[in-house]
Design a protein that fits this description.
The structure is a single chain. By secondary structure, this protein is an alpha/beta fold. It is 48% helix and 11% strand. The protein contains 18 helices and 14 strands. The chain has an eight-stranded parallel beta sheet. It has a three-stranded mixed beta sheet with strand order 5-7-11, with no helix packed on it. Strand 1, helix 4 (75-89) and strand 2 form a beta-alpha-beta unit. The model has no long low-confidence stretch (mean pLDDT 93). It comes from Isoalcanivorax beigongshangi. It catalyses: D-threo-isocitrate = glyoxylate + succinate. GO terms for molecular function: isocitrate lyase activity. This is Isocitrate lyase.
Amino acid sequence: MSQYLKDIDAVASVVKGDSTWSAINPESALRMRLQNRFKTGLDIAKYTAAVMRKDMAEYDADTSKYTQSLGCWHGFIGQQKLISIKKHFGNTDKRYLYLSGWMVAALRSEFGPLPDQSMHEKTSVPALIEELYTFLKQADAWELNHLFRDLDAAREKGDKAAEGEIISKIDGFETHIVPIIADIDAGFGNEEATYLLAKKMIEAGACCIQLENQVSDEKQCGHQDGKVTVPHADFLAKINAVRYAFLELGVDDGVIVARTDSLGAGLTKQIAVTNKPGDLGDQYNSFLDGDYISSAEDIQNGDVVIKADGKLKKVKRLASGLFCFKEGTGIDRVVLDCVTSLQNGADLLWIETEKPHVGQIAEMVNRIREQVPNAKLVYNNSPSFNWTLNFRQQVFDDWAAEGKDVSKFDRARLMSADYDGSDLCEEADARIRSFQRDAAREAGIFHHLITLPTYHTAALSTDNLAKGYFGDEGMLAYVAGVQRREIRQSIATVRHQDMAGSNIGDDHKEYFSGEAALKAGGKDNTMGQFDNI
């Protein structure tokens, strides 16, 4: 007997226990229950944390089993992404969602579009997590609703084979709920503020929180200038705050991603507290730029002097009050950041880089793994990189080093369409295509994400539609460029009333009101024009 039929019997035993519930259909009640598997955000966080931990273990055993995500700025975008994944690949295995602080700032703030500098309302972050999961839960309800309708149709026809097949699909239904890696920026304040926001994010469903080591009130986008880092003790306090939030809420296997911006950050706001030579604070301070002095006469009014390496160092400070790191110390600081984070509660790393280069990432990860062998990364396949130019230049440099003739190419102009189709550019595209596989294998990248792809796809698709619709194409721009393609590609939104829940509502009305239900999906619903296409 299938699980579906067993569950109907279980609900029936409850319904029959109250004589006033005679109007309740046990199968209808079960269908509603199946369409709402996750009752709270904490249910989601616990479920997805287990999924993510399983995936991390599988990656440790086989680096080809890396995971991926796309950043989504609206629940509908996240929903359509997961529906598409299930349609094309049959399951959602190792596919996540990413919640980008950049896109929250640019698209979800009540202040209007903002740069990625933690100026948006912190509450907009858990609100988006909740929204994403609301839409993913609705995707579950939508897909199951179609299966339930197909089951009713098979029963009406007396087709037992089809009925059994559909019940089997219901029993084996895979949810659209997947892990979200959620960006908490630099914590939006001190460690208590970080804890309070982390709780809200976890209660909304987040099983994985990404935290960066920038100064909260000086936070910059990882791909902008002017980044300012904090001493390790400050960052570790916030990692602890997030872990306490997970444990308080019972998400014992919640995942923390520790992001370091040290590769591109040349400034710090604070000199670290140090109690003895070689401790963590002393190591942080050792990277500070400055001059060793031998006399108090070398100190001017307002200078800051520290003791380092047994000598006095006058550290370099800007007019802003920020202190400078020595040039060329970025990689060493990244390695220290990563090792320290993993040894103090973080589960995964995020190294923000200035270009997508497998060798550069591997250089840092290999050094980290000398101390933490199972270190692995979440990596930003950022739209801030000019991927075409970067990889064409990488190929150019490799070929030049190998002695190949590259005289027909101008390295500075490799982005030019003049070079499209050349052997160099085809090799660059091949490397882009394999970048995620290569980096997962060679550079310890467990999770590949694109932070804000749907920001760009929304702009691109809107530009194409506007260009045609307001131009000579008129309505054909929509019909040929959107609707006809939806039909040809079997994209469910072509039946937008159904996608928005109209059929689910109709079925609920029938559960509640029986034959008296006033339904929207009758013969006059124009969505019927898309049936049987």
